[in-house]
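Same chain as my last thread, 187 residues:
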Amino acid sequence: MPASDSTPKHRYNAALATQIEAKWQDRWEAGRTFEAPNPAGPIAEPDKIAGRKKLFILDMFPYPSGAGLHVGHPLGYIATDVFGRYKRMTGFNVLHALGYDSFGLPAEQHAITTGIHPRENTESNIANMRRQLRRLGLAHDARRSVSTTDEAFYRWTQWIFLQVFNSWFDADKGKARPITELVAEFE
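reply #2:
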């Protein structure tokens, strides 16, 4: 048999890989494959989870202060993705979520460097990271994605901080009560 006859008609290459991956990613999105059903509430599907054990996975939030993800991000995400998929295949209702840590000095510094308002820059970077994460084919439930700059998120972090602050701040002395009192409260 001549060498040309033994060459497969289909060669697996980067272009074909991109095409196959995009096809499956589109199918997963259209089929809502990685959306975890809720037991109650507006997105409830109790019949889908009756009797199933639950598993919650929350990946570390990337900082959208840069233009995109770096090679270290998928390192952790792939491990939790494999674990979550395994648990899903063994009957668990898996909620695999991800968010974006949008506050802080890196976002401010990036805004100063680029001359773009932090919110505009952060939202643009989050959109790019979502595109990159989708390209990786990870099984995150995109509906559960949060950003620390979303008012619906940070209002609760501010609320809990104020609860703690107000419960341990001594207005008469103008300072927090001794930490030993806080420790004693939980012993």
